[in-house]
């Protein structure tokens, strides 16, 4: 049972084989099983969706909201603008917490620095209080929406706190004319001058010749029609599409780099560093700033309101989509007379860690100067692509 | 899609704890936990290294019933008896 408890959670296993100072082979295996969502089948739709935040620890709120959107699409329910904004606040703050985890804990560990535990703990504690600042009751995963009782002052204080953290602990450089993420000139000046863990990461990448490690061909996920993914999920009885997703033979990349592919800074960095580590971590910084900015506009759209009375006894199928810190998350549900008959989840990890996806193409043929650097580069690339489960890394030689 | 499987705290040593979930024992870091924990509490673990949330025994029991179902589904798929 212990073995299947681990399998239920899943692991990504990456083995790279070195030959003639290059990565000659890349094998990406996954023990992730789609069983978790299967237990939602047979339950009433409200109960099924309410269980999602209990099942998932990393992005429980995003999972809950993807489920709500899927159920509402299936039943033809439209939510109020304030409820839509409330859910965006939950998704956005949860994503900010996940990005900060990478930037304040994992990245410093990878480059031999002390993590910023105190800042991360304080930010996570503040973010954990968000549902209580928006919803009247703790059970917010109700299709159609539940009563909103908005503590605007508390939410704005949280937004201020996140902005201050970004300014002080991520950027930490005053006197720059504009954002360090506006273009490559400002970014390169910032990374050379600032004394923050994030700036040190970029300097460290340069010093260790890892700035473009992981560069390879990748296709950013376009604005796919949710119905197309929904059809594939609906017919995915054996789980093959969920395990190795592709659309017309293309394995898309999803997440920060795909979201900001056309941003001026990312376009410039792609020209200089390809899709390597510098470009990927810069896209993550843009993500952090964008989620923080969206938080303020979503707070502005919040308003107190009573619970909606949605009819939950109908039938239909629908797909819910959420942009999480790691990328686009799809939930698909089929409902008959108010009961779930199919529940299927496609997580961003399955695209980004596909056997022939962005990680594979970023590693194949990469030059290897020395083994220690290779291990650092691999760890950082896995971190940049950000699987939602733990990973095992093996290096073999031919 | 990291699952929120509750782990029971078996012992504490400063800012680390030995925990157990479904027979698997792990040593986890408590630095990121907002609440104090005592032996017998349950915690949710992230990245197999950090406890990130304290859970009371009643909520953990409800959650573990769900994970029992998930693991039964996997066992059935593997053809294993429980």
Distance between the amino and carboxyl termini of chain A: 36 Å
Kindly, what is the distance between the CA atoms of the first and last residues of chain B, rounded to a whole number of angstroms? 24 Å
Number of domains of chain B: 1
**pLDDT averaged over residues of chain B:** 87
**Main β-sheet, spatial strand arrangement of chain B:** 3-2-1-4-5
| CATH class descriptor of chain B | Mainly Beta
Strand order of the largest sheet of chain A: 2-1-6
**What profile does the largest beta sheet of chain A have?**
3 strands, mixed
So what's the overall shape of chain A? globular
Shape of chain B: elongated
- Overall strand count of chain A: 6
The ordered string of helix (H) and strand (E) elements of chain A is HEEHHHHHHHHHHHHHHEEEHHHE
Low-pLDDT segments of chain A: none
Helix content of chain B: 25-40%
Compact summary:
The complex is a heterodimer of chains A (398) and B (82). By secondary structure, chain A is α+β, with helices and mostly antiparallel strands.
């Amino acid at each position: 049972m212990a073995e299947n408890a681990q399998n239920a959670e899943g692991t990504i296993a990456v083995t790279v084989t070195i030959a003639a100072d290059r990565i000659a082979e890349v094998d990406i295996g996954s023990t992730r099983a789609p069983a978790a969502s299967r237990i939602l089948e047979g339950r009433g739709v409200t109960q099924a969706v309410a269980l999602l935040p209990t099942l998932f620890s990393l992005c429980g709120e995003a999972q809950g909201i993807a489920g709500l959107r899927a159920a509402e699409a299936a039943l033809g329910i439209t939510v109020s603008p304030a409820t839509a904004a409330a859910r965006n606040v939950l998704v956005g703050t949860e994503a900010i917490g996940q990005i900060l985890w990478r930037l304040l804990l994992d990245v410093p560990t990878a480059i031999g620095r002390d993590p910023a535990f105190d800042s991360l703990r304080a930010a996570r504690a503040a973010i954990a209080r968000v549902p209580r600042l928006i919803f009247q009751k703790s059970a917010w995963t109700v299709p159609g929406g539940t009563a909103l009782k908005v503590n605007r002052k508390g939410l704005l204080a949280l937004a201020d706190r996140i902005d201050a953290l970004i300014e002080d602990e991520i950027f930490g450089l005053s006197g720059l004319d504009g954002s360090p993420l506006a273009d490559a000139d400002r970014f390169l000046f910032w990374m050379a001058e600032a004394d923050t863990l994030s700036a040190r990461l970029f300097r460290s990448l340069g010093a260790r010749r890892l700035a473009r490690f992981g560069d390879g061909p990748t296709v950013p996920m376009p604005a796919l029609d949710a119905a197309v993914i929904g059809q594939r999920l609906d017919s995915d009885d054996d789980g093959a599409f969920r395990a190795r997703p592709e659309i017309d033979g293309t394995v898309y990349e999803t997440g920060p780099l795909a979201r900001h592919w056309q941003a001026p800074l990312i376009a410039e960095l792609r020209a200089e560093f390809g899709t390597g580590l510098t470009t990927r971590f810069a896209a993550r910084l843009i993500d952090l700033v964008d989620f923080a900015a969206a938080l303020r506009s979503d707070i502005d759209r919040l308003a107190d309101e009573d619970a909606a009375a949605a009819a939950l006894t109908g039938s239909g199928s629908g797909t819910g989509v959420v942009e999480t810190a790691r990328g686009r998350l799809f939930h698909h549900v089929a409902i008959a007379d108010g009961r779930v008959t199919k529940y299927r989840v496609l997580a961003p990890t399955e695209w980004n860690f596909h056997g022939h996806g962005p990680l594979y193409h970023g590693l194949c043929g990469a030059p290897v100067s020395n083994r220690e650097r290779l291990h650092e580069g691999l760890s950082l690339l896995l971190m940049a692509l950000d699987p939602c489960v733990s990973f095992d890394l093996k290096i073999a030689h031919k | 899609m990291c699952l929120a499987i509750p782990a029971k705290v078996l012992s504490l040593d400063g800012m680390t704890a030995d925990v157990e979930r479904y027979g698997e024992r792990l040593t986890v870091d408590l630095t990121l936990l907002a609440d104090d924990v005592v032996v017998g509490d349950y915690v949710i673990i992230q990245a197999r290294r950090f406890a990130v949330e304290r859970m009371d025994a009643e909520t953990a029991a409800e959650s573990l019933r769900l994970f029992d179902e998930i693991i039964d589904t996997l066992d059935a798929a593997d053809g294993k008896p429980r």
